[in-house]
Amino acid sequence: MKRSRPCAVWATKNAEVDELNKTNQDLRPGEPVVFNSHDYISDAAEGESSHFSDAFLDKLNSQVVPPHLLVLKPLDYYFLVRNYSLDAIGSRQQMNGTKVQIMKLPDRRQRGVFIWHLETNDVHIIPRNCFEINHRNHRRNIAQFKVIRRQYPFRLCYTMSINKSMGQTLAKVSVDLRVPVFSHGQLYVALGRVTKASDIMVITNEDSHH
């Protein structure tokens, strides 16, 4: 079955991406379920991990790692944030950035999430995975410690950053420029995701000059 190309919203910063994703998810029907991750410091010396509270570790975030509080809702759209082994059956299309739809959430009998692959129409079961978060000292630009997060490998994909849109071709795109782009090259990437100018909607502030 031939599928039409998807639509998407692009934003410049990760904070705007998360906010717009939550807004879109709240508008869709269905009861959300929150899954908490398990976070711990992997390379801490004995007794050192007590210096960091669970609340601090849970707030660490990255666009390549699922959040601590992962809200899943049946029929919502997500993209994978994990590459799976090429030796596994059917996993060649399950790569980082692959768009999927949640079909069934975990229960007492089934720990994994049933997902529908939008390109192949295959159904897969995705378990929890472990991810590494390198917490950096921004002043020195060095990694202070490494956090291991065990969570389901999903992030909402109603909105994505412009940088993550590279290489994709979509039917329609909305570009949120209320926060300006960093460079002309970033704007070129955003506008080049569709084949016609009529398929792009750009959102700016009323007093914006860019």
Describe this structure in words.
With 210 residues, the chain is an alpha+beta fold. It has helices at residues 14-27, 54-59, 184-191, and strands at residues 7-11, 33-36, 38-41, 69-72, 77-80, 99-104, 113-117, 123-126, 129-137, 142-151, 154-156, 159-161, 172-176, 200-203. It is 13% helix and 33% strand. It has a 5-stranded antiparallel sheet. Strand 9 and strand 10 form a beta hairpin. The protein is globular and about 50 Å long. 21% of the residues are buried.
Percentage of β-strand residues: 25-35%
Q: What's the helical proportion of residues?
A: 10-25%
Strand order of the largest sheet: 8-7-6-5-11
Poorly predicted parts:
87-91
Task: Note the main sheet.
Answer: 5 strands, antiparallel
Order of helices and strands: EHEEHEEEEEEEEEEHE
Shape field: globular
Going by helix content, strand content and strand pairing, the class is alpha+beta
In whole angstroms, the N-to-C terminal distance is 42 Å
Q: Given the structure, what is the number of helices?
A: 3
Radius of gyration (CA) equals 19 Å
Round the mean pLDDT to the nearest integer and report it. 81
The tally of domains stands at 2
Count the beta strands.
14
Secondary structure layout plus pairing:
Elements: E1 7-11, H1 14-27, E2 33-36, E3 38-41, H2 54-59, E4 69-72, E5 77-80, E6 99-104, E7 113-117, E8 123-126, E9 129-137, E10 142-151, E11 154-156, E12 159-161, E13 172-176, H3 184-191, E14 200-203
Parallel strand pairs: 1-12, 1-13, 13-14
Antiparallel strand pairs: 2-4, 3-10, 5-6, 5-11, 6-7, 7-8, 9-10
